[in-house]
Amino acid sequence: MNNNSSYGGLHVEARILVEEHQTPLLCFYLDKESNEMKLIADSESQRKVKESEQFEKLEFMLKCTLNEKKKLTFYDDCTLDQCNQQDPILLPLVCYDRLPTEILKAVFEFLGPEDLKTLLLVSKTWKSVADNPLLWTGFGLPRKCRNSKELFQEFFEGSLSLKLQYLELGQFDFKFDDHYFERFMALSLSCIKITTDIDLSNVSNELLATLVNNCKVCSISDAFLVPKKFGALLKVLFKKMCMGTKIKSLKLEQTELTSIPPDVLSEACKNLTSISFDYVEISSDQIKAIFKSLKMDANVLIKIDESDGINTFDIERLDSIFDRLTGFSFYGEPLDGQLRRWMDILDNSCKLKNLELLEVDVRQIPPQLLARVMTKVERLNLSFSEGASPQQLKEVFKRIVKSDSKVKHIELDSMNLRLISPELFAEAVNKLESFYYGSCKVSESQVLEMFRIMSLGTNLKNLGFCNPDLANSLDRMEYIELVDPETLAKAVNNMESLHLDLGAFTDYGPPSLTLAQLVAIMKQLNSKTSLKKIWRWSSSNYRWPYSEDYEIVYI
User: Fold this and answer.
1) Residue whose C-alpha is closest to residue 442's, from 410, 479, 470, 393
2) Nearest CA to 97 among 19, 43, 29, 160?
3) pTM of this structure
4) Which of 374, 389, 456, 528 reaches 20 to 30 Å from 395, CA-CA?
């Protein structure tokens, strides 16, 4: 139905039916053969329309608009076949229940849990498709159930609770006991996360460990805060893993493991396909035991924080396992000569996909060696690294533009990038998929050349954004106001994601983007664009680094 001046009132009344009377399966169309406006509706929507006062208004508008006497025709599931047999040209077979289930499933895959809940009520056919567990991946406990015992119990009395696949045990406003956990035991969870934001003192470790072992993905974090409870839980958990487990991916964050016998850890971890130690306190013998039994192709991520002088991880043991890591993050200062040894190991054999060196002095590493290693990983973070030399940075950027470079995402902070030529800087950045340069020093000519190249074509999917916690808004980038509006518009519309605060004043001050630039971006957005998302920090609550404070403004 065209929303022009002739049908403006019709559009308003139809919108009332859809939004206020909840008739989502309502469709108007103008038949070219008969020049009649037709209405297609399922049986439930048909009933609602007939009972609504908007029905008479719609009918009157149609009769006033069209020339024929008969202006309004209803079709429902019972009459579709008959109509098609009488005149297949007038009304093609469009019964939604007759669509192949493969097509319905392909469409439903684009929907989230909230929409899927509605689809369950449409028809038996749609319910049979929407019931597929694969469509409910990531479906977690609604927020309201965390605030009230009554709402929690009410949710689990319904059939929708059986579709839960993700459970985060944290930030509940009431105390748990074994009775509540019996509810969880009936679920087919795929992922569970446990934090110390929840009081589990009245829950038996046996029951909790059983629940965890029935999940494929498990994450336990912040256990340092309540070592007594979590220490006992970990002992029971690893013992049960030895007897058989569904866990394939295990992530431990800020957790103490020294009380677990090495042989227990070895047996428990032998079938894992992914394991992550984020600032975990663990002994050399335990590391050796785990890697002795761990599958050679397992994904292994280790994060170490030595910045406070407290050794929680035997970093000397890293030399023997470094070539097996798929992710490594180090915060602090390695032992003498250790960083060079790590670079040599990675230069010869590198499985790493993610490398983070935070507040690490890399000046001791030869520029070409550093560049070779840095471009063997997919994601690189050198934020706050101390004093990378101009020659080292030049070599890294030179390697990026070569065809054998694997790096796709780079995060840099507090570095002087001005000594890199504008041409090399711009070409390297546009070879990446994401580039964050935080508080790095850049020149005007580098910024202008970067956007010029970007306007002609780029691999960049986003600029100044690697995750919601680290993001530079386009309208606050240095020298951004000097970029030609048309060039800037073409450049940003060649990306997929754009952080644009749209003039909001924040802790970082007023935006630098000009009105002419903003208008050009929006015009380009309406003609030719690759953008899929524009987002901004919430102006009502602009804080860093809380990722929930951003909002999507365009999809």
Assistant:
1) 479
2) 43
3) 0.67
4) 456
